[in-house]
Specification:
- By secondary structure, the chain is α/β, with parallel strands linked by helices.
- The protein has 2 domains: about 1-30; about 35-225, Alpha/Beta hydrolase fold, catalytic domain (Rossmann fold), CATH 3.40.50.
- It contains 7 helices and 6 strands.
- A 6-stranded parallel beta sheet has the order 2-1-3-4-5-6, with helices on both faces.
- Strand 1 (about 35-40), helix 2 and strand 2 (about 65-70) form a beta-alpha-beta unit.
- Helix 3 (about 75-95) crosses helix 4.
- Residues about 1-30 have low confidence and may be disordered.
Length: about 230
């Protein structure tokens, strides 16, 4: 009888341990991963990240780890970079984290990279993931360049881009990845999204506006920042 009791106790203890393991693992992962800051692009807002934020939550992230924000997309990317710096400092203070992961789309790549290169951002960012980033400019920016400073800065060969891309395009100890589509009509040429020194991934034919909604691209970004 005593032997049966010991066996039953062992089985129960093993079962309880197996039930508790996923909870422990999830808690440990949450304690070590970085909060994610999302940066939208031209003519957009924080709501452009709704699909990916839902995907991150479905994969175990908490709302308190995910930060999307809106900015005046017509202003200079240098001005937006200063606002991004303040946003990231706020996130670090709020979460107690030492670094964030940056996930950006389209023009968001330019102000984010300005922050990394010129405003000390490399000390506060662990991973940088760009979807359809306008890293080397696009000729399609000509349609809005007469209206918005940000568009003029996106135009191929602009003084802003020349300065941003001079020297090391991937400074610091940040891990960089850039995801680009071979049929992105908003980026001319679409290879402008290739960032020198980064892990560059062609994701196939995904439209520009779907690059930060597409689930397949999301999975690649999620795995990279993990």
């Amino acid at each position: 009888m005593a032997r049966r009791t010991r066996i039953a106790g062992t089985v129960l203890a093993t079962a309880l341990a197996s039930l508790c393991l996923p909870l422990f693992t999830s808690t440990a992962e949450a304690a070590t991963r970085n909060p994610v800051v999302f940066v939208h692009g031209l003519s957009s807002s924080s709501s452009s990240w709704d699909d990916w934020i839902a995907d991150f939550k479905a994969d175990g992230y908490q709302a308190s780890e995910l930060f999307s924000w809106s900015y005046d997309w017509g202003q200079s990317n240098a001005t937006t970079a200063q606002q991004l710096s303040a946003k990231i400092q706020s996130v670090l203070s709020q979460t107690g984290a030492s670094k964030v992961d940056l996930v950006v789309h389209s023009m968001g790549a330019l102000n984010s990279r300005y922050y990394l290169k010129n405003l000390g951002g490399t000390a506060h960012v662990d991973d940088f993931a760009s979807a359809a980033g306008v890293h080397h400019g696009t000729t399609t920016a000509g349609w809005c360049g007469w209206l918005y400073t940000s568009c003029r800065e996106m135009n191929t060969g602009s003084a802003f881009l020349t300065s941003l891309n001079s020297g090391d395009e991937t400074p610091g100890s940040v891990s960089y990845a850039s995801y680009w589509s071979n049929c992105d009509d908003a980026l001319t040429p679409d290879t402008t999204a290739i960032l020198n020194g980064a892990t560059n991934v062609e994701v196939g034919c995904v439209s520009h506006n779907e690059m930060n909604n597409d689930h397949g691209v999301y999975e690649r970004v999620r795995d990279f920042i993990a």
